[in-house]
Every structure is written in structure tokens, then in C-alpha cells.
Please model this.
Amino acid sequence: MISPAAFEWVMNEGDRLNLSPTQRWVLAVLLSKYNRTWHRTWQGRASLETRTGLDKSTISRATQALSKAGVLIVEPWVRENGGGRLNNRYLFPTYDLKSQQLERLKGQPMVAVHKGESDGWYNMAIVPKSHWAVYPEDIIW
Model:
């Protein structure tokens, strides 16, 4: 559920940037799962389609427009050693000042390690409700 403060932020940013109703809806649904410890949200495409009632191409156009407007950063995640893509993470730099990518990672995917596939995962930050871990120095805490 989105907090009243987050909903107000969506409406204010929507007014300030002249966002469409679809863009505001996608932004609100993404923000509804915001994790304050990790300063990002993650939802799979199927979950976004179900929760918004919109199709994949409409969601894609909305997230691209939100990125271009500067209210959303789409952060791709990949498995270590070329093991494939994971769900994108979404950051909200004008909502939370810590919701940023590190400068050295901009334009690069975040590398995640499956807890059962690497001996070094125990020194890493465990992603909540998942089997994934990332290097703690790659996240702004």
C-alpha cells in the first residue's frame, strides 16, 4: 500500500512535470512497494501488469517517460558470471535522496549472487525476500 506522503509526492511530481494519468499510476504502483532500507523497489513485469491493469508496452513507455522526466531510475540487475537478467529495480531520486545509483555504476547493471551458488555470498547484503545478495559497497545506505 502506498503511504499518504508517497501518494502526495506522486501527485505533486505529476503536476510539476505534467505527467499523464498512466505515468502517475505506474509511478504510484512502483512506489507502493518501496523499501526504505534499500532505497528502491523491485517488481517483476508480470506483477506490474497485474497490479496496474496495463500491458507490457504501456508500462515500458511509462517507465521510459518517468526516467526521462528524472523521477525514476531503472536499475537493471543481472546474475553473476553472465547468468542472465533479474527483475529491474526502480529508484526514486526526487522522493528519497538516498535512492540513487553510485556514480561508478551508472549505465551498468547491478550484479547479484545467488546465495547457494557462491561461497562469498555471506559477506554480501542479502536482498529481502529473495535468494539474492549484492556487494554492500554497491548500494547507498
